[in-house]
């Protein structure tokens, strides 16, 4: 449990007015993003072009604003305690690397290769399925800190789990994708992978720890807690601005082929809910604490969309079906993960009654 929030057992963490109506704000931001993308295409093209190694810099800044409050809660000296959460760590690793990529391959074949095939361009179907596999082949690096924070997750577990997944990713991503796509060799965009890890983990952790030490030296936990409460609206505001930006950048795609995007979204939505639900249920069965099970479920269902987009473009081209599938994953990621956050928060009483049994 974080220092900033104390919650009675069996109850969902308290929500402010802004958080309580987050679904409404998300819907409004999606509509606003699409509308602004159509009204101001030049501005959004310029923002979309501000990239380094396929990492969008405006989005990176917003991600920083979202994850630093979570990282401020982390006491590096307490990371050794994470070993007590080994059941949650094992569950998340199994879901991320042994279940999620293969379940997405199955869902892609079922929906894109079979059920929706008559309604999709025949020449793009294999590319669509490849993009879905790329999307599910690696777990998220940055946004999971936001989701964990929203469910009042154990911050040390979250950081340790992300660091472990990144280590596995370096060795397992290429062979896993090669296996599922049937390719003899995969060109991994290492610059995107390394830059994302540095941008979204290494640098923010260093900045947050220096800031944390300064706050504790200045006034102890009281000042730290006050700072975290002040930053909370900024973090959520950055989340909503990210939605506006993402949907503004892809507004043309959405308006041009809404049916294709809707069909591609179906297997993505199912795999998120399936893997999140499976992780949550397994953790409950194993008696894992709710503050660990929440982030475990969210990490288990997450996708590293920057790496997926970069790999799809490198392997299949910018205009490929694979690239479009990964972009749909970007659009779906925030709204669907927020719905998982809502389910986790609302189910705390049910979860803890079973975990104690």
List the helices and strands and how they pair.
Layout: H1 17-20, H2 22-39, H3 41-49, E1 51-52, E2 55-56, H4 57-72, H5 86-115, H6 125-136, H7 143-150, H8 155-181, H9 190-249, H10 251-256, H11 258-285, H12 290-301, H13 305-316, H14 321-346, H15 348-356
Antiparallel strand pairs: 1-2
What do you see in this structure?
With 357 residues, this protein is mainly α. It has a single domain, classed as Na+/H+ antiporter like fold, CATH 1.20.1530. The chain has 15 helices and 2 strands. It has a two-stranded antiparallel ribbon with strand order 1-2.
CATH top level is: Mainly Alpha
What is the beta-strand fraction?
Answer: under 5%
Shape: globular
**Secondary-structure element sequence?**
HHHEEHHHHHHHHHHHH
Assign the CATH architecture.
Up-down Bundle
Low-confidence stretches: 1-14
Overall SS class:
mainly alpha
State the helicity in percent bands: over 70%
CATH fold label: Na+/H+ antiporter like fold
- Biggest sheet: strands side by side, in what order? 1-2
User: How many structural domains in the coordinates?
Assistant: 1
Q: Main beta sheet: strand number and arrangement?
A: 2 strands, antiparallel
Separation of the first and last Cα atoms: 21 Å
**If you compute it from the alpha carbons, what radius of gyration comes out, rounded to the nearest whole angstrom?**
20 Å
Mean pLDDT: 85
List keywords for this structure.
mainly alpha; 357 residues; two-stranded antiparallel ribbon; 15 helices; disordered N terminus; Na+/H+ antiporter like fold; 2 strands; single chain
């Amino acid at each position: 449990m974080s220092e900033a929030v104390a919650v009675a057992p069996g109850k969902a963490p308290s929500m402010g007015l802004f958080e309580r109506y987050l679904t409404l704000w998300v819907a409004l931001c999606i509509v606003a993003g699409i509308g602004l993308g159509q009204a101001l295409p030049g501005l959004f093209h310029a923002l979309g072009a501000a990239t380094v190694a396929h990492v969008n810099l405006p989005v990176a800044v917003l991600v920083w604003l979202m994850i630093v409050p979570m990282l401020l809660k982390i006491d590096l000296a307490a990371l050794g305690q994470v070993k007590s959460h080994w059941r949650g760590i094992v569950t998340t690793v199994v879901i991320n690397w042994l279940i999620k990529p293969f379940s997405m391959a199955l869902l892609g074949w079922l929906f894109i290769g079979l059920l929706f095939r008559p309604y999709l361009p025949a020449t793009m179907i294999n590319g669509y399925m490849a993009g879905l596999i790329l999307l599910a082949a690696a777990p998220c690096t940055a946004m999971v800190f936001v989701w964990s924070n929203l469910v009042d997750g154990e911050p040390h577990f979250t950081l340790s789990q992300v660091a472990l997944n990144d280590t596995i990713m370096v060795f397992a991503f290429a062979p896993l994708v090669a296996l599922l796509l049937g390719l003899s060799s995969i060109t991994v965009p290492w610059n995107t992978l390394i830059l994302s890890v540095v941008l979204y983990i290494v640098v923010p952790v260093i900045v947050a720890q220096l800031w944390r030490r300064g706050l504790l030296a200045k006034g102890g936990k009281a000042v730290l807690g006050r700072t975290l409460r002040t930053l909370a609206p900024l973090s959520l505001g950055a989340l909503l601005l990210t939605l506006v930006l993402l949907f503004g950048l892809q507004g043309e795609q959405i308006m041009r082929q809404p049916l294709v995007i809707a069909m591609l979204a179906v297997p993505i939505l199912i795999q998120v809910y399936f893997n999140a639900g499976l992780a949550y249920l397994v953790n409950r069965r194993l008696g894992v604490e709710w503050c660990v099970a929440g982030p475990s479920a969210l990490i288990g269902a997450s996708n590293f969309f920057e790496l997926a987009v970069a790999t799809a473009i490198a392997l299949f081209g910018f205009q490929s079906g694979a690239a479009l599938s990964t972009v749909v994953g970007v659009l779906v990621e925030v709204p669907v993960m927020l719905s998982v956050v809502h389910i986790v928060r609302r189910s705390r009483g049910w979860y803890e009654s079973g975990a104690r049994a």
